[in-house]
Specification:
By secondary structure, this protein is an alpha/beta fold. The chain has six helices and five strands; from the N terminus they run αββαβαβαβαα. Strands 2-1-3-4-5 form a five-stranded mixed sheet.
């Protein structure tokens, strides 16, 4: 595990965050859920994702496709879906995780997460980004100050 990944993982757990980005000396944390944190960064400061290290509570295929599209270099996940793991490995992104699950469940626990479901058959990160951007358009993106 790299120093950046250790730092991101520690900040994720010590701060009770849902998402942490470490890029050089810059750090971004979020309490937003789902793909909202990464969509927020992609909207306002996409350059921060290039070569960045991400620590996330839950990584499904939707987040994985966004990470690949944005140029993230490594990812730590508390929970990762098999679909996400496969995509990240195929893209050559360094990945560490605590728990692997068949798929990410929706918030009510009755089925697959709607964002993961919307890209389940998509393998092109650019196409995935377009779908997820459209499906996530109702999310409000408060961009914190670094």
């Amino acid at each position: 595990m790299t120093c950046s990944m250790k730092k991101a993982k520690q900040v994720l757990h010590d701060g009770g965050h849902t998402f942490v980005l470490v890029c050089g000396e810059k750090q971004y944390t979020s309490m937003l859920t789902g793909i909202a944190p990464v969509l927020c960064i992609m909207k306002d400061s996409p350059e921060l994702l290039i070569g960045a290290t991400i620590a996330d509570k839950v990584v499904g295929k939707s987040a994985a496709l966004l990470f690949i599209f944005a140029g993230v270099s490594e990812v730590y996940a508390d929970v990762i879906s098999l679909l996400a793991l496969s995509e990240l490995q195929d893209a050559g992104i360094k990945i560490k995780y605590s728990k692997k699950v068949p798929f990410i469940r929706n918030r009510s626990g009755t089925g697959m997460c709607p964002m993961e479901k919307s890209v389940v058959d998509i393998s092109d990160p650019s196409e995935g980004f377009q779908i997820l951007k459209k499906n996530g358009h109702r999310i409000i993106y408060p961009m914190p100050v670094f």
